[in-house]
């Protein structure tokens, strides 16, 4: 895979490439594993001094299948967007993002199977954004390590935006919009659950109420930090747990058996085209079903 850059100031090749997120590790890969560097069509090395206007082309070698332990699974994927660098999927609930001791049939396994079935030159799976097993919605994958590294920069700067829809319910009213700022920690007696505690890490969640159905509200949520179970913990903390989320006190009486949480919006800057990429996803059938039943109940009352 080749990429081209133009020097806008006198500098070494490696300095120009660093401006475009080419790391020392990637330069080493280019040097030792079959890649190449050209300046104005002539092969050069990383310390060659550029003049203004010089054109630098790099060739990144294909990624070997080092994830041999990642078993490919040939199950259908709901692909909502794909190009040479990124793939955005709509993840169904009930499937984990990555393998673990508890989960082996994951989205990563499915993507591995898809890459192999398409005979893509790069077969490593690079997950940029993850979702909990029972959360549905948009997931972003990079199709090669360089693309992953460039989006990691955006993750570090917190400029990749994800928004979620959730169905929450509580006895008290919920303001039309608000900020939940409360530190999240792991209890000493559990490796799974999280809780709000002064000893925890800073966590910040914003929300807006989209619709109200009696005690149940549909909220649009934005995370400003990425703590484990952050949305679930924060809304439980303010007395508005997610429907179906029995781990954090959510009601199971509305016909949904998983946390009613769906990633419906994803936005990032494409580092290769410098354009804003925005993807949206409709609510899942189980969340829509809950809303329809609530609307019918209100209509009949």
From TrEMBL:
- Look up keyword Ribonucleoprotein and say if it applies: no
Q: Name one GO biological process term.
A: enzyme-directed rRNA pseudouridine synthesis
> MF terms per GO, please?
catalytic activity, acting on RNA; pseudouridine synthase activity; RNA binding
What EC number(s) is this enzyme filed under? 5.4.99.-
Q: Could you name the active-site residues?
A: 132
Q: Which UniProt keywords apply?
A: Isomerase, RNA-binding
Concerning PROSITE patterns, the annotation shows: PSI_RLU (PS01129), S4 (PS50889)
Query: Into which family does the record put it?
Result: Belongs to the pseudouridine synthase RluA family.
What this protein is called in its record is: Pseudouridine synthase
Question: Source species, please?
Answer: Streptococcus hillyeri
